[in-house]
Automatic annotation (TrEMBL):
It holds the Pfam family tRNA_Me_trans. It comes from Halodesulfovibrio aestuarii. It is found in: Cytoplasm. This is tRNA-specific 2-thiouridylase MnmA. Residues 266-340 form the tRNA-specific 2-thiouridylase MnmA-like C-terminal domain. The record marks H114, Q323 as: Interaction with tRNA. Catalyzes the 2-thiolation of uridine at the wobble position (U34) of tRNA, leading to the formation of s(2)U34. Residues 208-258 form the tRNA-specific 2-thiouridylase MnmA-like central domain. The gene is mnmA. Residues 136-138, 291-292 are annotated as: Interaction with tRNA. Keywords: ATP-binding, Cytoplasm, Disulfide bond, Nucleotide-binding, RNA-binding, Transferase, tRNA processing, tRNA-binding. InterPro entries: MnmA-like, MnmA-like_C, MnmA-like_central, MnmA-like_central_sf, Rossmann-like_a/b/a_fold.
Amino acid sequence: MTIAVAVSGGIDSLYALLTLKEQGYDIFALHAHFLAPCKEREEAIGAMCATLGIPFHAVDLHEEFERCVVTPFMDEYIHGRTPNPCALCNATMKFGALLREAEKLGAEQIATGHYAVLENHPVYGRTLSRGHDPKKDQSYFLSLVPKQQLKKALFPLGKKKKEDIKAELEERGIAPAYPSESQEICFVPNDDYRAFLINRGANLGSGGNMELTDGTVVGKHNGLWQYTEGQRKGLGIAWKEPLYVICKELEKNVLLVGPKAELLSTGCIVSNMNYLVSKKHWGENLLVRTRYRQQPIPVTISEQDDMLIVTYNEPQSPPASGQVCCVYDKDLTVLGGGIIKSSIQ
């Protein structure tokens, strides 16, 4: 079996490359230019692979990345939502376009440096579950990848911890081409999405009123795209108690704010579900994450018009529309993932 190993030049993909090579697999390294091609970066990664005696290929996918990830990212903000480009990139690019290029080069599977586990389950079949490093687990970001594409994936780092990987590479004297950690959103300079959207000339809409739930105007917002549900800082409101963003009323161009007592959400509506495990196997003890850093929380789930109605066992801070809702069973196997359409207050 021939395996393509997606390499960025960093620690994680280097370790995945070494692990599979030492396990005796027929492998080659594959680097994708998701941004405008950088010859210097390609040459540095190619030199690293040559030192290890591993064949290296690079493919230019920056136009497809622009179409499949960057443009939807901008569109979501234009429509007042908060997108998750990393989850979309995994589904459309890393296990979509890049997998396609790997197969053209003769690979049957693609391995990446993701911290998640793929195993065979006696009932579910091939499943995705949380990585063993709680600080680096990326199962949340992988929940939108279709099941058929995950069947062709390998995650050599799934049961490893980042600190152990770093220590092992240092002990062996093997250095990555680019040792620094990648930034949060690879195509947004300095993680400043506001500047990125403005510089791209996105039609972001005008300012409007900030209002309490009773209609009292307490200030002005600078465009709904700049705010996220649950946000407290940066509102610029002088009020008798701290105010939070409760929701964005797009039709009225109103930012609804209120005290913490009004903030809590009882659930969310989830659309565009990607089922990794058939709904008939889900059972009753379900958990979800509606943001990356959140610990899985217990919920009950029902279906309505091709959407999931997620009800929290205990009220939570409202999730941002446009973000991912990842559903787990009690053993933290990923059952599926979808896009949060709205919070339920």
